[in-house]
Amino acid sequence: MKKIVSCVLILCMAVSVLCLSACGSGSKVTLNVYNWGEYIDESVLSDFESQTGIHVNYTTYASNEEMYAKVSSGAASYDVVIPSDYMISKMIEEDLLAELDFANIPNYAYIGEDYKGLAYDPDNQYTVPYTWGTTVIIYNKTMVDPADVADESVDLLWNEKYAGNILMFDNPRDAFGLALKKLGYSMNSLTPAEWEAAAQELKAQKPLVQAYVMDQIFDKMSSGEAAIAPYYAGDALIMQADNPDIGYYIPKEGANFFVDCMCVLKNSQHKTEAEQFINFMCETEVAAKTAEYIGYATPHMEARALLDPEIVGNPLVYPDSAVLASTEVFLNLSKDINKLQSDLWTDIKKD
To answer: What pLDDT score was predicted for residue 12?
Structure first.
């Protein structure tokens, strides 16, 4: 009898072990994806989960600096992040990103050659381009005199006529980039005196600024709470859809040309699944749906063919080569300049 009971107990234990293994109890993969706000059609996350059984824990940030601070501090664990060019090179330099296994990302073949081999990842080891675009100046046509936008200058952000109705980037890289361009300097200046001069421009602008914003810009500009703001072309297109009085232009002094890329963090415990997610985001229909939803230009050449010709033909979303020639890609600055930028920004934002 004892032998029979023992056999039954052993059999039950074996069945339990097999069930745990086969049913995946406690072993379902959760992928932590950290992305910019308003930067994905979340229905594609449900589609990915349905197709793969991988759960996506999706959270957002408002700036490269916010993302970097959280990732580098180890305050949270993520698998996939979508930084911009200069932050990518910084994260590569600090060994925060994993080299990708492109055998798991065959849809990378659809990415246009113009978006590969760029300065932040010259050997295409760490990144898959997600979107690209330029910074623009956005304005409300009912609140801004047409004469003040006729020359399409960055100076509009310093126009005292609109004091209290101007919004400004709440991140130093973009804010300083505009001030440097206003002065005729490179956005990637390595000259401390030029950064000091740009800081003085931002201090002079400060009394005119209603608020320093990132994602809050959508509500403020769409509702007419503010008249003027700098932001990104894709977001301007979305605001324009919500409020037809929104206009925007690429400043004549030049603008930032940015590429945001999907990357896998080096400490990811689910690298293969992360690459599977990136490959899914590069499926033609998914990439087209994403581009259509967020309004940004897509580097996915097959997806571009599926988009509304009116969008692809918009010169502010897909600028021609002559316009792009006046833009600059943000590069990772030297440690000394990065520290100077940080110190100057702290001084500007104090009080």
So the answer is: 41
334 secondary structure, DSSP code:
P
**How many residues comprise the chain?**
351
Query: Which DSSP letter does residue 80 get?
Result: E
How far is residue 209's CA from residue 207's CA, in Å, rounded to a whole number?
6
* Cβ contacts of 272 within 8 Å, gap of 6 or more: 101, 104
Mean residue pLDDT of the chain comes to 91
- E strand spans, 141-290: 166-169, 209-213, 228-232, 246-249, 257-264
Give the 3-state DSSP-derived string for 262-311, with helices as H, strands as E and coil as C: EEEECCCCCHHHHHHHHHHHCCHHHHHHHHHHHCCECCEHHHHCCCCHHH
Residue in the block written with tokens 């675009």: 133
Q: Could you tell me if 77 and 32 are in contact, meaning their C-beta atoms sit under 8 angstroms apart?
A: yes
Kindly indicate the confidence band of residue 27, based on its pLDDT and cuts at 50, 70 and 90: low
The b-or-e profile of 210-233 (16+ CB within 10 A means b, else e) is beebbbbbbebbbeeebbbbbbbb
Q: Which two tokens stand for residue 339?
A: 């520290």
